[in-house]
Every structure is written in structure tokens, then in C-alpha cells.
Amino acid sequence: MSRNFGKLLLSLGLSSVLVGATLVATPAAAAQAVRLQYRTSAPGATTAQAEPWLRLHNDGTTTIPLNQVKIRYYLTGAETYRFACSWAVIGCATINGQFVRQQGNDQYLEVGFSSGSLASGQNTSDMQLRFYRADWQTFTQSDDYSYGSQTSYADWDKIAVYVNGQLAWGKPTGTEPDPDPDPDPDPTDPPGGAGELFDDFTYTGSSDPRLTQRGWTVRSSSGGPGVPGATWSPAGVSFPGGLLTLDSSTNGTAAGTVQTELSTASRKFREGTYAARVRFSDAPTSGPDGEHVVQTFFTITPLRYNLDPDYGELDFEYLPNGGWGEPGNILYATSWETYQAEPWQAVNTHTEERASFAGWHDLVIQVSGGRMKYYVDGRLFADHGDIYYPETPMWIMFNQWFIDLQGASGTRTYRQQVDYLYHSKNEVVAPSVVTSRINALRAAGTAFKDTVPNP
């Protein structure tokens, strides 16, 4: 969230039935193994919010990793909805939901899991879910394909379950949305967007005049996010070997804390494809470890006032040591509608993975047709949309900052590096094609290019 002051996250414990095991289900085995039960706590034909309660059963002989499972609840109509988890034995913090448009006016709620595993012969127990219209108007749910009025659990095949992308339970309905057009065109094809930005970061240092000439700002102004009273210092920004390098450090005090940021000076970016090759790190380059540091690649619009509806933000954020209630390393993809700082209120949706992402990663964000798709190393990491779609032009930024201070003695320095930045305006570019274009630009000796028009 990068210019905000916190994040609203729930953290609930996992049930003991979700246990680790050495056996992992293959898609073929899982297809014979899972079973879904459904009931509702809001059975009326019209309602202010739908309340599907679910239980996922593993009737097979092998453990199923829950991050391989997607549950689809099918709806009629194209209204904008919001998803919430009221309570779950496995913990609402492990459950996420997003609405995916189908061809025509229909859609489905796709429920996924960030962690956990389901042992043979066990079930998740209650997952008490709900969704409601963004404008809080009542709606008819009796015409939704997946709706049933029963208030006691029963097997329900009108809700589909996918494991590793393969249908494992239920009877889907509707037609999937059109895939990205021409996802793997000939890499020699010229860009088809309305302008390109590419930077190979071949600068001599943070005071290189070409940074300003090419539309970059190295931050020196005070303020959030991060530790109040910390310094944003251009001295921590360098470009060794053509790599944007952010070195942020702290000695455990606000006065001794240095945070770093590089931002485009112009807000001229909204729809299209954003890409960067970023190196995250789990440990400091010097000093004791343990700080809650945030390493980022994101786009953002300024917040003019609390809950500004024109605010927008699309984030990759890596927390190598946790923070915001998380105990360990975690990567977030977060899409923002708006927020207010005091009292804190966040209107966003996020997808996360709890794992180490130390090392180099190719990060891509596609913004088109009401959806934002986040890719990590060519793998679809998150798919967001609806009210979180950006309405106004944004800056592109990289920064590294501290959520809080852990009080350890001695100075410690954390490093984030960026190999390149690429943007194609108003064009969806597949991750593999981004790589081909970067290679072609470098082969042509292009260190910088900006044909994106100013607003």
C-alpha cells in the first residue's frame, strides 16, 4: 500500500484437521477425492447479502494442498459485489474471494486459499462466507445458478471445485471470458499499444541529471509510509551495474532510519501492461535481521481526501520478515479502491502467498477491461477487478521502507534491486512477450525509451 499507514488483516489459527503430509494429490487423484457441501443462512429469494456456508471434504487417500483449490459459486447478472468471510474454522485470513466476469452478463465468485492442506478423510468444517452489492441494494438470489434455499448441509453440485485447474467436483455453468488476445504473438511484432516506457537504469547515481530529464524523481521529502520521523534519502539510491538499488537502513530509532524511493514525475499511466524485474531480499546486507521491511513495485494515485473515490493503487509488496500481523515472509498483490488514515479504513482486495521470494522475479501487472492481472515469473498470481479498477492516471514507483522498528542494536541495511522497468500503454502484453521485448530493446542498444504521451 506504499503511501498508506497500515493494512487491515485478520489472522485466525488453522484447524488441526489441516495438517501437513508427505503425500500430495495429483489432479487425477483429486478429481475422485473432493466433495462440497452447502447450506445458506440467508434463504430468502431476495436479500441484502447472500450467505453461502461451505464444507470441503477430502474423500480420497492423499492430502490436498488448499492453495491448489478454487471453488466457484455462479451468479446471474453483472452487478458489482464485494466478498467477505464472516467466520471459518480454518481461519478467514487463509480465504480469499474474487468475482470473475463470464461472457454475457453472468459471473462467478471464485473462492481460494492462501495456505493450509486438507488431510485424507477430513473436511474444512464451516466456512461462513457472504457477498453483497457494492451499493448495498437488495438483490434477487433465487435466480443464481449456485443458490439453494436449504439451511442444513448437503452435497451440492451446482458449486464447482477445481484442483490444480482441473474440475474435481460439480457442474459448472456459463462460458469463460475471452482469454487475453494473442497471448504469445511473434516476439518480433511491434508493440501495439499507445506508447512505451522502458528504462534500463544506466545512471551514474541518484544525482545524475538524466534522471530528471527522463521523468524520474528520487524522493527526499518527509512523510509516510513507514516510520514517523524517518528520512527519505537520495543517498540510499544508486545504480551499480545498471541496477536500480534501494538501500534502506535503521539503527532502531526514527532519527536513524533511512527509507528509499524512486518515482515517475508524471502521472500518465493507467491501462496497459507494467513490468519490472525485481530482486527481493530476505536478509540485510549488513547488521542484525528481523526488521519489518517492505519491498515494492506499484502504481498509485494521490488521495485528495478520506475515501476519495478517484484514488487508485496496484501493489506488489514483499515482507521478508512479516509485519501487519504476519509472522514470516509474505508477498502481497493488492488493489485499492480507496482508504482513510484516521480512523483507519481500507477498501481493497489482496492476494498473498506465504513463502520466501528472495531473489530475482519478473513481475507483470496487466490493467485492461475492468481486470488487473498480477503475474510472478509468468505465473498468474492474482486477478482483481470490479470497484478496485483504477479510474485515474497513476505514478509508477519503487520504494523500500519500514513498517515499524524492532529495537535491535546496531545499524542494519536492506537492499532491493530492479533490473528494468517496462510499460506499454493500453496494451495487454503477455509475460513471455515482455521478456522478448526487453531482449530486443537491449539488443538494439536502447537504454531508455518513453513514447507514452503526457496527459
UniProtKB/TrEMBL annotation:
Q: Which residues form the signal peptide?
A: 1-30
Q: Which SMART domains match?
A: CBM_3
Q: Residue spans with biased composition (Polar residues)?
A: 203-219
Family annotation (SUPFAM superfamilies): Carbohydrate-binding domain, Concanavalin A-like lectins/glucanases
Residue numbers spanned by region Disordered: 169-234
Q: Which GO terms describe its biological process?
A: carbohydrate metabolic process
Q: Which UniProt keywords apply?
A: Signal
Task: Write down the superkingdom of origin.
Answer: Bacteria
Q: Which residues form the GH16 domain?
A: 134-429
Acidic residues bias locations: 177-187
List GO molecular-function terms, semicolon-separated: cellulose binding; hydrolase activity, hydrolyzing O-glycosyl compounds
Q: Which residue ranges does the record assign to the CBM3 domain?
A: 30-174
This protein's name: Cellulose binding domain-containing protein
What is the species of this protein?
A: Nonomuraea fuscirosea
Q: What is the lineage of its organism?
A: Bacteria, Bacillati, Actinomycetota, Actinomycetes, Streptosporangiales
